[in-house]
């Protein structure tokens, strides 16, 4: 078979890879995208981990479980009586699967519309401007292109003390496909993924115990937000145990379930769970990515070394998404994919890593962008803080959802907005306006003088901006900035 040539070859069709491929094609570049993802039925699917077993299905279950809990416990507050609310887990899972199927077909349609050639199988970087492709049926082919984009994604980290068995001890993928609600669910890791999965199953009826090795909850978040969220999740029923180290997990084949042994400051403890989910991070899927005389620099974790423009140590080869430095976020990978595509086309595009928003999709949601207060203290940057609680928001009260607050951080001398941190039921939406403000170098006064619709949750951002200046309108001021 003659070697096929392209302008760009992308390996991986997750949010970083498929977006890069589409943008390359939009810019007139002959583009191929190789992806090996297949579902449990053996069907090829685009979208990678995020769409198939990550971001989208988890948000589908978060939404469904939130509605179930709301109907079961909270609608009567609004004068709505729902008798006999029942959970049909099978239907809930089927809805999730339909959503995933619809979106993966959507990406397939976008590939067709943009004339991206989709190769279904495994891709490897072989040498200068060459990629080896192995189809699912074993057929091999060599492709060539002057530009190659690596977007292999990531996979869950497995613990030696709690190895996956695919049934009793599972990763995040397994936790999205339980066929029944566990009576008692153990989760190792109380980070973003662990909290989201724990929230789903707690709402559906599980007793959830979370074992977290760190002594500080959500250490990557603003301390005030982390402290408040720990209290909220505790009241909701999540049993979060910090400073714990799991030493072993044993599957009981006769009685069923898993026995977990862990250590904390008080010694060794043993807990029994119906299911155990391990959520201790993710690692780049770079094993087997290179096959040939290619000096692609990686660290010991398999993270590919890149510069600020995602160029690797190999000329003409770029890497984006979870396989490179920075947060493992779908939107971060997508923007890197766009940047690389446009730079290949001769544009001077960059990514501002300081304005990438982060979200934890619990209830309330936690979202932030920019600097944390502890960062500013550590760096000796003078700052002013403005906090507005949703208990003072008319819209939040109408929604019977006044949990949380908006916190803004501005430079004490220039008033430039440095960070925004939100804990509320719509934090994932509210954080966007803060990210835009920081991206455009806005000041807290800029936000304070912007007219926000009333009554809305977004008014809390406006009031927090006023609070940084010392004169909020709907809460008592704590003193003007000096």
From TrEMBL:
One of its GO terms (cellular component) is cytoplasm. FAD binds at residues 59, 123, 322, 328-331. Its EC number is 1.8.1.4. It is found in: Cytoplasm. It catalyses: N(6)-[(R)-dihydrolipoyl]-L-lysyl-[protein] + NAD(+) = N(6)-[(R)-lipoyl]-L-lysyl-[protein] + NADH + H(+). PROSITE patterns: PYRIDINE_REDOX_1 (PS00076). This is Dihydrolipoyl dehydrogenase. Disulfide bonds join 50-55. NAD(+) binds at residues 189-196, 212, 281. The active site is at 454 (proton acceptor). Residues 6-337 form the FAD/NAD(P)-binding domain.
